[in-house]
Amino acid sequence: MSIPSRMAGGLTRRRFVARVGAGGLLAALPHPSQALATPPGVLPPAASATWNLNVGRSRIEIDRKSLNAPCIGGSVPGPILRWRQGDTVAINVTNGLENEDTSIHWHGIRLPAAMDGVPGLSFTGIRPGETFTYRFRVHQSGTYWYHSHSGMQEVQGLYGAVVIDPREPAPEPCDRDYVILLSEWTDVAPSDIVSNLKMQDDYYTFRQRTAASFPADARRAGGAIAALKDRLAWSRMRMAATDISDVSGIIYTYLLNGHAPEMNWNGLFRPGERVRLRFINAASMTFFDIRIPGLEMLVVQADGNDVDPVPVDEFRIGVAETYDVIVQPREDRAYTIFAQSEDRTGFARGTLAPRAGMAGVIPPMDPRPVRTMIDMGMGNMGMGDMKPGESMKDMDMSGMPGSGGMDMAHGDMPAMGDMPMPKPAMEVDDPGPPPLNVENQNVAMMPVDRLGSPGDGLEENGRRVLTYKQLRATRPGADPRPPTREIILHLTGNMERYIWGFNGRKFSESGPIRLKLGERVRFTLINDTMMEHPIHLHGLWSELENGQGDYRPYKHTIISQPGSRLSYLVTADVPGMWAYHCHLIYHMDLGMFRTVIVA
Amino acid sequence: MKGALLVTALMPFLLAGPAWAQGSGTHYVAADAPSATPVAYLGNMPPVMDQDRYFHGILDEFEGRYAPGGSAFRWDGEAWYGTDYNRIWLKSEGTVQNGKLGDGDHEILYSRAISTYFNLQGGVRADLDDGPTRTWGAFGIQGLALYQFELQATAYVSDRGRFASRVEGSYDFLLTNRLILQPQAEFNLYTKADAERQVGAGLSDVDAGLRLRYEIWRKFAPYVAVTYAGHLTQGRRIVRDQGGETGTLRFTFGIRSWF
């Protein structure tokens, strides 16, 4: 909390409550979606090249939590924008807020930097009463989304889906097409959440290991001594193995297309139809694990780009990622779309049904994950708690030339795996192991390749769960050049002080990352923290090096798992200032943000 | 003096990072190294606000203490305002017993974050209560020690050239996620006796408690406790000679709250 901003927020709120009074009837409707032209989740009938979006605050109540939410057209989420690949779109965004700037960022869209919608980097924001016209040619197709990049408007409801029709018909034709946009809802002010986390980092965590949970832990660990040892090890590190999500279902209601679980969003189908579901994680702090009991999901697209279909029972979606899946319900019954938060403190839910108003069976939530020494970057040498999906041979063999002293120390084994060996001439920006200081709590001594792991809490759960290794683009990458430069970045943070950053520094203490126009760069992320971070690079594709050779999946947001090392390639082909950050909004705002300058 | 020595002796252990974390001669280049020419953000709008100031206060102890020999009321709290690195801290504690305010200790400190878990603090302490007033310069550390012990260790030098030290620690033992057992103790050491303030040379007094709180809400937790306030060594003799209570175990009710 900054005191001035809190005061400003208070004033705004009062003023708006007064103003909404007369027209409050509409704003107080239980279904935030009713102001929309089409029902939530349903695509507009056709693509359009011109859109008018009015940003304002409306009093919206969901799950008995009332909020004067910044949003578009009085609805949360905002309207689904349907564009056509190849069109030049014009989006007129009018700021109807009383005394705050706004902005819309087109997440994952390739466009000129001036159209990216980040105040300070792309433009100077949209002032109250003003209209800004975003105009750019749409080069890509697929599922994306938009959100505000001003203050904390995104947290409170200023977000929505973008669907871009491909010029060629989609490779997987479907009878029905729904957007499934996941998000959170709370009446706690974002400034209060940050302030609470600064005072007590586990403020929203009520799932810690306690004396009461010791017998269960002991059973799982195979003895009281082992359980005690594990607890002492974590305690000695001054960290908590139960630290999964910083903000939890204690205050969040998880939404599916703006619907709380009991509102039960419905998507209709006729048995036997193929249904495309476009999942978007528009939450600010929550990863979701998604499944539809009784249905196999065919993953056909990740972050807007087609991938070879992967049949799965479940997948994890990081904040800001998108996945398109196809399901084919054959029975005449209701199927539950079940999206539990990674920390298992709540879930979003909707129903695919042959008739409106049906409700599927809601499955129980899984046990919450517990972090292990792998998450701490101790590799597989830890407390004997090797995770499935990671084996010794996956261990990061960083014997690459010039990739840093620390890694060399344990990298005297031969290099394995399918990571291409870089050319010896490659320039490497290696910051070295991050310092242990005010802003950094841990150094991953032995970061491992976790692309083959579906993520903490999903390993060996008896279901087929998607992993990053399975993503294979349907066409080879556009830029066949090998990288000429590697940028190694450590993801760092101090949970106790609630400070986040890269290389042991927060944003305000760091310089920009400069890329030469046209440069081909490998970004290598080493996650020294014990949490997942969805890392988003604006404006340029991140081509994940996941062992698929030339068929690397193109992504805009990449989950870096705790204690892991991964890399992706970037072609710096659009000049300008671009944002590069963790998409957990409170991590971003407290320092895990860099400016990338392409010139 | 002892206290000051203790603090000094503890510091290397509390503050130093492992040697391997320091540079080892390899040439490292960070792509995001601080730059001499700051980025010119459009409209001078930095994209994120990671330098905000925060304001919090906590009353760890706000309690009535009951014993056949006499009851007491005690508070112990602190507040801070500032950024990640630089903060102003206020600390205050005191005990009301037999209608008199004793053990009144109030500090205003500048606090600087110096390591992952510790802050260096320096400022002024005033002993303000119904006894004679003393003022001290204060210098110490505050933070989270290994195994998640909350720790404060402060050395004081008085306007009369005397030294003192206080060490305070506590630990949260989670019975459940809301029911928390907290052992806590505070020890005061002085280099010279000060009979008017019931202070003896050496380890002078202790105030300890075993508190069981229930966090109805994070910021509001009623508790029951047993507390002990007593004088030790020379301090004990001074108090006994004055006919005061040398040490009492009391049954205690209180509320822990913060904002």
Poorly predicted spans of chain B: 1-24
Protein chains sharing the most extensive interface:
A-B, 77 and 53 residues
Query: What is the average of the pLDDT values of chain A?
Result: 88
Which structural class best describes the helix and strand composition of chain A? mainly beta
Radius of gyration of chain A: 23 Å
Indicate the CATH topology of the largest domain in chain A.
Immunoglobulin-like
**Span between N and C termini of chain A?**
36 Å
Give the CATH superfamily of the largest domain in chain A. Answer: Cupredoxins -  blue copper proteins
Largest sheet properties of chain B: 12 strands, antiparallel, barrel
The overall strand count of chain A is: 31
Across the major sheet of chain B, the strand order is 1-2-3-4-5-6-7-8-10-11-12-13
Quick overview:
With 599 residues, chain A is mostly beta strands. In chain A, 12% of the residues lie in helices and 31% in strands. The longest helix of chain A is centred in the first third of the chain and has 25 residues, at 3-27.
What features would you describe in this structure?
Chain A: It holds the Pfam family Cu-oxidase_3. The complex is a heterodimer of chains A (599) and B (259). Chain A is mainly β. Chain A has three domains: 3-168, Sandwich (Immunoglobulin-like), CATH 2.60.40.420; 170-207 and 242-369, Cupredoxins -  blue copper proteins (Immunoglobulin-like, Sandwich); 392-455 and 467-598, Sandwich (Immunoglobulin-like). Chain A has helices spanning 3-27, 153-156, 190-199, 214-221, 224-236, 405-410, 585-589; strands spanning 50-62, 65-72, 81-84, 88-95, 105-107, 131-137, 142-147, 159-165, 176-185, 253-256, 265-268, 275-281, 288-291, 297-302, 305-312, 314-317, 322-327, 335-341, 347-353, 427-429, 485-494, 499-502, 513-515, 520-527, 533-537, 542-544, 554-555, 557-560, 565-571, 576-582, 593-598. In chain A, helix 4 crosses helix 5 (224-236). The longest helix of chain A has 25 residues, at 3-27. Chain A is globular and about 65 Å long. Chain B is mainly β. Chain B is built from two helices and 13 strands, in the order αββββββββββββαβ. Chain B has helices spanning 2-15, 233-241; strands spanning 54-66, 72-82, 86-97, 100-113, 118-127, 134-145, 149-158, 163-170, 173-174, 179-190, 202-214, 220-231, 247-258. Chain B has a twelve-stranded antiparallel β-barrel. In chain B, strand 4 and strand 5 (118-127) form a beta hairpin. Chain B is globular and about 70 Å long. Residues 1-24 of chain B have low confidence and may be disordered. Classes of the chains: A mainly beta (599), B mainly beta (259). At the A-B interface, helix 3, helix 5, strand 21, strand 30 and strand 31 of A face strand 1 and strand 9 of B.
